[in-house]
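Q: Could you predict the 3D structure of Glucokinase?
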Amino acid sequence: MIVLSGDIGGTNTRLRLAKMNEKFQLDEVLCIKKYKGADFSSLAEVLKVFIVESGIEVTSIKSACIAVAGPVKNGEVELTNLPWIVTEEQMKEVLQIEKVKLINDFESIGFGISTLNKEDIYTLQEGDLRSESPISYIGAGTGLGVGICYESNGQTHVFPTEAGHVDFAPVGDDQTALLEFLRKKLRRVSLERVCCGTGLVNIYKYALSNPLPGQNESPEMHLAMYNSKDLGATIAEYAFKHNDPLALRVIDIFIKVYGSSAGNLALSTLPYGGLYIVGGIAPKMLDQLKDGRFMSMFRDKGRLSSLLHNIPVYVSLNPDIGLQGAEQYAFNMNK
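A: Sure. Here are the predicted structure tokens for Glucokinase:
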């Protein structure tokens, strides 16, 4: 049985056709393609091109699920970074099937966790792994996403949240000063304002305005930031490749906020099924996540610190976890 899955981001649309086995799991990937969204006027147009290029008869596709960057309401979503309104009705018309679904891209990650292999995961803490217990995941990328899921009787149940927009809760004097700095510019400071790609830039602006001795911005970094089209990536480059003191301080604050926030999520959900660090930033900062700062802040919860030592913590290294989650959802539609 063949299913179609997809992941529509702000820049690229990835589509995949796969065959599933009798256990509703992946048997074989038949075709995978990536398209620039700006080259097309609609999802329907992309789907038509993909079907032709795949060489697969459209009538052989039994179900489809596509993950989208945006809130899905009544089978419809208006994308933020593309002039598309994507609907399930479009999908049904092009694919000539009834079993179609649009889901939020971070919801799809919840379904994708069960598809990860050992090589897709780095373990930060073994903890006390328990079956059929809650699983939580938090992912910094363009924004900050948070979700909860659990597996029962072979089924994955996913509960999306908007917990990336909870209040930023600073720990220590430096983070408190960061909060006060951002409060002067923003009506409200959510966690996402600090813990994502643009959050790196906000921390950079704070560090630039409140330098520590020996941590002024270098002329080279100043010029690079002035010319940069991706400020977060430039900050990371100057931290990891050039050991720039200011950039290293930005990363230090970011990692500690990320760890503390993951610990707060663990206290809120008790994810003995595992807490997963997902999103595009985690694999790029794996060395920093591994060096102890993240887990130190994760566990630093006073009287509840011993509990945090028992939560399994993993980093997802698989960039296709969302696409695989959409695919697994499409498989499950045939049960």
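Q: Anything worth pointing out?
A: The first strand starts at residue 2 and ends at 8.
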